[in-house]
Amino acid sequence: MEKFLKDKLLYLIIPPLILFAVIYLLVGQPETSVSPLFQKISEVGAKQNDLQVKRDRLDILRKQKESEKKVTKKESKSGKVIYGVPGEQFSAEASFGIVFENLLANLTNSGIKIRSIQYDYQPENDKILSANLGGYNACEISFVSVGSYAQFQNFFKNIAKEQYLSNIYEVYIQPYDKDKTILITRFKIRLYTRTT
Prior knowledge:
Elements: H1 2-28, H2 30-73, E1 83-85, H3 97-110, E2 113-120, H4 127-130, E3 136-148, H5 149-161, E4 166-175, E5 182-195
Parallel strand pairs: 1-5
Antiparallel strand pairs: 2-3, 3-5, 4-5
Helix pairs in contact: 3-5
């Protein structure tokens, strides 16, 4: 038996010593080696969860932006689009700058003389404004102008060819008393923009 103990003593003492050392390292010194490791693992897990939440939000925002672009580019029955102003740097009134410029250029290129202009940025009974769609703007412009039949015909053709959506409301045509070839007109054009 002594010989057995001498030969196997090494095998009997070493495993308990190793087990004791491991238990001492895990339980006896948690602040120095194991605890910071667990803390780092939990911090990395929390950061990964936060990053995943941010990715999901970003995907949702991208999908919303793409759907808004599809709505903006959607053409009306006439094949025209609503003029979109990129960014939210313009007010509703300022977003009409390019559309006004095109309209006035069509008037002057047609040879029509403008006597007065009135603007209404919140026209009553407008279907787009009454739908409360975010970012859509409407402006109704009332003109009193003077020109010939051919000039007005040219102007209205150019408005029909314009790529941006505009609706013509209330056209009153009256010939000038002294020269029947000259027309005095009162008409309203409603223009639309979208600030994206």
